[in-house]
Predict the 3D structure of the following.
Amino acid sequence: MKFNKFIALTAFVFLTLTTHAAVTGWTNWRGPHQAGRSDATDLPKSIKSADALWTHNIAGRGHAVIANGRVFAWGYRGKGADLQEVLFCLDEANGKTIWEHGYNDYLSDTVYSRYTVGAPTIDPATGWVYLMTTNGGVKCFNADGKIQWEYSLMERFGRLTFPNGRTGAAVIDGDLVIVRGVTSYWGKQGPARDRFYAFKKKTGAPVWASTPGVAPQDSSFSTPVLANVGARRVFYAGTGDGNVVCVDVRTGQPLWRFQLSHGGVNSSVVVSDDTLVAIHGKENIDSSGEGRMVGIKLPANLPAPGEAQLILKDKDPKIADGKAWEKWRLQHSMFTSSPALANGRVYQVSKTGVLVCVDVKTGKELFAKKINNDQIHSSPLYADGHLYLAFPNGRFMVVKPGDDDAEIVSEAQLEGGILGSPVAWNGKIYLHTKTKLYCFGKATGQKPEATLPAAPIQIAAGKAVALQIIPGDVLLKPGQTTELTVNTIDANGNVVERGVSAEFAKFIPPTAKVKTSMNAGVSNNAITADLNNVGSAGAFKATAGGLSGLLRGRILPKIPYTQDFESFKLTVDHKTDGVKFAYPPLAWTGARLKWEVREMDGGKVFAKTLDRVLFQRAITIFGDPNSSNYTIEADVMTDGSRRVKGNIGVMNQRYFITLVGNQQILEVSSNHERVKASVPFRWSSKKWYRLKSRVDIAASGDGIIRAKAWAKGEPEPTAWTIEVKHKNAHKKGAPGIIGFSPQSLFRVYMDNISITNN
């Protein structure tokens, strides 16, 4: 698609106009300009802890948002098994709670208290609240706190969690809500990648999934930044594979990527005219040094629908980086903090505590001033001619930047370290520390005119070029029906015609390694799963008026359900072991590249792969996330020596029930620092055991997780081997399995899986 200068000028005008909506406030964590900049005036310049207008005692590491006189703060409370993340709705005038929603952590790797590293997002049209949770969920609330829809992204799309807990924030654009995370799903989306997902904001219906990068090295919580490029609506974001990417908002098409580092890019970018500024604190792509700030020249031409993603590399193929696309570069290392952009200048604090100011157009460093001995994790706020800077050691500074230097106007020592970013609205400054939310300023103040990010360019739809099916990804139970909406879209992703009648036919991509289809049929734009109680997955190709589009879907079996793997045909040649194997069931989430069906002792078993150290641990889901009140059991075994063995277990209602080889225990856990209990259980390598678990929930919400293990062939013990009580227990959760092969040295195995209703 050629870049039209007239349309580009129109886009720039739109980007500078105020968007009018029913909601006013600081609705997203980077603010109305998506750059850590506020147009608010008459803000407090002298900050003292004792002068706070009000405080709210809730621990947090993220950022508040404000809408229509309400403050939405995301924090956590409690310890151990009783810890919960909480979304608070507070009165802007006094900080008193209007409503709150608490929920458990589960199945995550989050360590210590690294919770709520992100922010809620407010829909400017409805006032609804959207939240990405630390453990891989997305929740949608109305303004009164009632849940409208929610997903466990981990159980639904195979989102992975990380010990650092980095989450980020959802992005609202039009009728879409966009979230991100590293996922290991199924089929083409089976390999672990840093992906973006778009849902209908009112219903939660999946619209598209985008994979703009390669295998990730880390997680990323870089929040997407929206922009208009001609008539295309796009976003820019850093990814866990070290790229900065550009993605079409309406379709999810990856448009370009620029390799910035060997590690994850966590900072959000800022954009000024044709320059995108990105920073990172990992190893540089072209040197052993760490950290860089780069001004990237935005491409003038974007791929048309169906065209390949642009890779912004140097013109010389011998040069590994994309220096030909760089307008400038500076050697600054900045890891998790995002820069502030104001008046053509970028402000940021390096990991050595140096405040730098850089001219966006030229990359000239205008000044560098040492202001702290600690790096910044909070992102700077520019408002009312001043910078508001917060540090992990609890220092909160107000700095007035000049042309070639900066003056520290005031500073305060607040209670708790600070990872969250300051927010400005209505004469107030909000800041969340590890112990409380502070509000500084006046009871009433001046509200800025610009309150919302600029809207997409509104132009008449062009010629239809493709079909878009909504939902584009369906999850069904046997016999269940879901209505489909088929729209025609133009080259810019605009809807041309809604509710088109289409013909659907089963489709197996030529490149698919598993040649199976979904056991379902489509009639009158509605898909119905077959009644037979088996799992399946596949795609349908929709056609109408010479146009086409794809629908992905899975069917998960109802309980009761069994799997012994005997029906699998071992036809694939193993690259390293010289044996025949079969790929895992296509409908199982998170199984690709982590498990395989093999022959053993005249039968077939499910075996953990060993050829990728990155996948030494596998969490695999094969049931409905809304399942409850069931018993799961399976045969399990590990290879290994006396000193080194793997771990193998099942998942029941968001609890792991695991035989831990090196420790010789039977363990019940959810998050290892929240729910974790065990009893000794001696088990040997190369010997099969039977593992069984059920979860019972009382009317009060308390639960008991029960598990037992015994050598296969021996009588089942009457008593449970372990019983663990959990207050506010998980009330639902998908069945699944977990396998861990330390350093990919020794396999673990599973067979004869059975799930029955209690």
